[in-house]
Amino acid sequence: MQNIEExxxxxxxxxxxxxxxxxxxxxxxPAQYVGLSIHDMADRFDVSSPxxxxxxxxxxxxxxxxxxxxxxxxxxxxxxxxxxxxxxxxHEVINTYERSFSKLRxxxxxxxxxxxxxxxxxxxxxxxxxxxxxxxxxxxLVYSLYSQGVFYEAISTETQMHYLSQTARKDWxxxxxxxxxxxxxxxxxxxxxxxxxxxxxxxxxxxxxxAKKVSKTFVLPAASTFLRDDGxxxxxxxxxxxxLFSEVISYYFNWVGDQREQAVPS
Length: 266
Known about the structure:
This protein has about 270 residues and is an alpha/beta fold.
């Protein structure tokens, strides 16, 4: 079950103004909403129960019971945390990114990253795929590897992805950047899976459907939404974390290459 803060971050761009207002009020004081029925919560926000349900489903929950449990769990976890000292907005922005990176630091992806990099080095080609804002993360990986003298292609439009699906190759590696694991990648994932190619998904949504089909998934922490003093939710650009991960892959690509050269007998 997704953490509420992470769910809001992952699906923030899909929210309407009313959805954001609902979650702003909940995140401002989540404890007061624990245990409420969907009808009581709708009354609090002066909206209909279906409006609450649509907002909840928009951030990935199957229904109100699942959301209710997630809210209770979030409040319990928050009560166990140390009190947060409010700083300037500048520090709040920096601290929010720092929180994301701290969560990322707790994960140990090294073995999986090395395996992916070995796939890349043993492949005939690598396609770095991203759509909309995550297209820049795909381009960042291409740029980072280009600086090492290796050139791969960034795929960042629906037309390119459709063509890529029609020309899937077993000896290629496909690296997909998607915060939510959008369905738009399904055609590509199905096509490359059918030919037996290696596929890698870099996402923030552990419940992404396409994650069940790819060769390997990296789920990055989603903690880039914070509540301002005026009570409004603001999301920092989650691509920052994707850019960092692109740089990590690039660094390992160089490191693994050096290791392989040293292992070759003179």
